[in-house]
């Protein structure tokens, strides 16, 4: 029903406006989704324990969809095993100028240059206090106006404020839409940033997992650096991958828009990165696989490449909520 009826209707309108419209519908009429959609699969065999947390199933929602933690309870009801909110910054910021979100229908992809638009960490916390037992990841970043040499302070602020309200953290230094942010992926600044957060973590009575989200555009040498950094800082794992700057083999009208590309064109590369990190590290740390998952087979390939969990974003938009059940059914069938 989603792909034949709902998606064609939604895709007639501006993608950012549609996003807010669907949020409003889910917030006010979420009970209808429960009636119209297949019941989410619940099966003990789907449960996963990863970096000390228990996930009811391995299919999560990636950051960027529920930036401000407005809909995590309703989205969890669709069947997601966990919800990642953000990217959140210490201060509210509007993000980049509109238009900043583009569908590439022929490529089953999206280009975004949102720019960490969010209402700030304090506003999100007000809503997180209403969590109905949803496992939450907190994706954190820096404000656009904060220079890179002061970026650590922004991450520290978000970490400290969110600590009581999220189950794990994701350090986002890989978005292409905040000027110079990806410079923080270089070995020295990244080691400093992660070490600082890990030291704060170790001061807590009970630590929470810290993960690093990386770009798919890193070279093999840079990926080897990532493995060393994870080992040196003792963070819990990696999310592979964020959006790409590559525009290879695209055919859609909007293919030349600036921003990060997500969706089917990223499927192969994100899986390659997962496999490289898993094999070269000797499976030393868990990986959450994200990027171009539009089918159950896409998810299985990422799990087989070395991912412990997977996340959806663009595939969720193109394929609809039923994709969650399809993946979980395939996992049960494959006994992964």
From TrEMBL:
<keyword id="KW-0665">Pyrimidine biosynthesis</keyword>
<dbReference type="InterPro" id="IPR013785">
    <property type="entry name" value="Aldolase_TIM"/>
</dbReference>
<feature type="binding site">
    <location>
        <begin position="242"/>
        <end position="243"/>
    </location>
    <ligand>
        <name>substrate</name>
    </ligand>
</feature>
<keyword id="KW-0472">Membrane</keyword>
<dbReference type="InterPro" id="IPR050074">
    <property type="entry name" value="DHO_dehydrogenase"/>
</dbReference>
<comment type="function">
    <text>Catalyzes the conversion of dihydroorotate to orotate with quinone as electron acceptor.</text>
</comment>
<feature type="binding site">
    <location>
        <position position="292"/>
    </location>
    <ligand>
        <name>FMN</name>
    </ligand>
</feature>
<feature type="binding site">
    <location>
        <position position="67"/>
    </location>
    <ligand>
        <name>substrate</name>
    </ligand>
</feature>
<feature type="domain" description="Dihydroorotate dehydrogenase catalytic">
    <location>
        <begin position="46"/>
        <end position="332"/>
    </location>
</feature>
<feature type="binding site">
    <location>
        <position position="172"/>
    </location>
    <ligand>
        <name>substrate</name>
    </ligand>
</feature>
<feature type="binding site">
    <location>
        <position position="263"/>
    </location>
    <ligand>
        <name>FMN</name>
    </ligand>
</feature>
<feature type="active site" description="Nucleophile">
    <location>
        <position position="175"/>
    </location>
</feature>
<keyword id="KW-0288">FMN</keyword>
<feature type="binding site">
    <location>
        <position position="139"/>
    </location>
    <ligand>
        <name>FMN</name>
    </ligand>
</feature>
<dbReference type="GO" id="GO:0005886">
    <property type="term" value="C:plasma membrane"/>
</dbReference>
<dbReference type="InterPro" id="IPR012135">
    <property type="entry name" value="Dihydroorotate_DH_1_2"/>
</dbReference>
<keyword id="KW-1003">Cell membrane</keyword>
<feature type="binding site">
    <location>
        <position position="177"/>
    </location>
    <ligand>
        <name>substrate</name>
    </ligand>
</feature>
<dbReference type="InterPro" id="IPR005719">
    <property type="entry name" value="Dihydroorotate_DH_2"/>
</dbReference>
<protein>
    <recommendedName>
        <fullName>Dihydroorotate dehydrogenase (quinone)</fullName>
        <ecNumber>1.3.5.2</ecNumber>
    </recommendedName>
</protein>
<keyword id="KW-0285">Flavoprotein</keyword>
<feature type="binding site">
    <location>
        <position position="241"/>
    </location>
    <ligand>
        <name>FMN</name>
    </ligand>
</feature>
<dbReference type="GO" id="GO:0005737">
    <property type="term" value="C:cytoplasm"/>
</dbReference>
<comment type="pathway">
    <text>Pyrimidine metabolism; UMP biosynthesis via de novo pathway; orotate from (S)-dihydroorotate (quinone route): step 1/1.</text>
</comment>
<feature type="binding site">
    <location>
        <begin position="313"/>
        <end position="314"/>
    </location>
    <ligand>
        <name>FMN</name>
    </ligand>
</feature>
<feature type="binding site">
    <location>
        <begin position="112"/>
        <end position="116"/>
    </location>
    <ligand>
        <name>substrate</name>
    </ligand>
</feature>
<dbReference type="InterPro" id="IPR005720">
    <property type="entry name" value="Dihydroorotate_DH_cat"/>
</dbReference>
<comment type="similarity">
    <text>Belongs to the dihydroorotate dehydrogenase family. Type 2 subfamily.</text>
</comment>
<dbReference type="Pfam" id="PF01180">
    <property type="entry name" value="DHO_dh"/>
</dbReference>
<dbReference type="GO" id="GO:0106430">
    <property type="term" value="F:dihydroorotate dehydrogenase (quinone) activity"/>
</dbReference>
<feature type="binding site">
    <location>
        <position position="213"/>
    </location>
    <ligand>
        <name>FMN</name>
    </ligand>
</feature>
<feature type="binding site">
    <location>
        <position position="87"/>
    </location>
    <ligand>
        <name>FMN</name>
    </ligand>
</feature>
<dbReference type="InterPro" id="IPR001295">
    <property type="entry name" value="Dihydroorotate_DH_CS"/>
</dbReference>
<dbReference type="GO" id="GO:0044205">
    <property type="term" value="P:'de novo' UMP biosynthetic process"/>
</dbReference>
<feature type="binding site">
    <location>
        <begin position="63"/>
        <end position="67"/>
    </location>
    <ligand>
        <name>FMN</name>
    </ligand>
</feature>
<dbReference type="GO" id="GO:0006207">
    <property type="term" value="P:'de novo' pyrimidine nucleobase biosynthetic process"/>
</dbReference>
<keyword id="KW-0560">Oxidoreductase</keyword>
<comment type="subunit">
    <text>Monomer.</text>
</comment>
<feature type="binding site">
    <location>
        <position position="172"/>
    </location>
    <ligand>
        <name>FMN</name>
    </ligand>
</feature>
């Amino acid at each position: 029903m989603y792909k034949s009826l709902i998606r064609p209707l939604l895709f007639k309108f501006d993608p950012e406006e549609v996003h807010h419209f669907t949020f409003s519908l889910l917030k006010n009429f979420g009970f209808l989704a429960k009636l119209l959609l297949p019941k989410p699969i619940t099966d003990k065999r789907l449960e996963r324990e990863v970096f000390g947390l228990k996930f009811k199933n391995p299919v999560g929602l990636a950051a960027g969809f529920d930036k401000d933690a407005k809909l995590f309870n309703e989205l969890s009801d669709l069947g997601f095993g966990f919800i990642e909110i953000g990217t959140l910054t210490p201060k509210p910021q509007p993000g980049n100028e509109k238009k900043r979100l583009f569908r590439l229908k022929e490529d089953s992809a999206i280009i975004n240059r949102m720019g960490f638009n969010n209402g700030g960490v304090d506003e999100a916390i007000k809503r997180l206090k209403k969590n109905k037992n949803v496992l939450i990841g907190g994706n954190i970043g820096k404000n656009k106006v904060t220079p890179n040499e002061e970026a650590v302070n922004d991450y520290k602020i978000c970490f400290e404020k969110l600590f009581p309200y999220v189950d794990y953290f994701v350090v986002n230094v890989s978005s292409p839409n905040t000027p110079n942010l990806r410079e923080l992926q270089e070995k020295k600044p990244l080691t400093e940033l992660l070490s600082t957060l890990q030291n704060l973590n170790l001061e807590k009575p009970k630590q929470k997992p810290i993960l690093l989200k990386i770009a798919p555009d890193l070279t093999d040498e840079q990926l080897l650096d990532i493995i060393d950094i994870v080992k040196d800082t003792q963070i819990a794992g990696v999310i592979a991958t964020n959006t790409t700057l590559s525009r290879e083999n695209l055919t859609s009208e909007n293919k030349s828009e600036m921003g990060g590309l997500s969706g089917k064109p990223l499927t192969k590369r994100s899986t390659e990165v997962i496999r490289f990190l898993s094999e070269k590290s000797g499976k030393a740390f868990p990986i959450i696989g994200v990027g171009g998952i539009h089918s159950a087979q896409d998810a299985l390939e990422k799990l087989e490449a070395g991912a412990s969990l997977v996340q959806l974003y663009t595939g969720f938009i193109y394929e609809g909520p039923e994709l969650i059940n399809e993946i979980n059914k395939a996992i049960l069938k494959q006994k992964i």
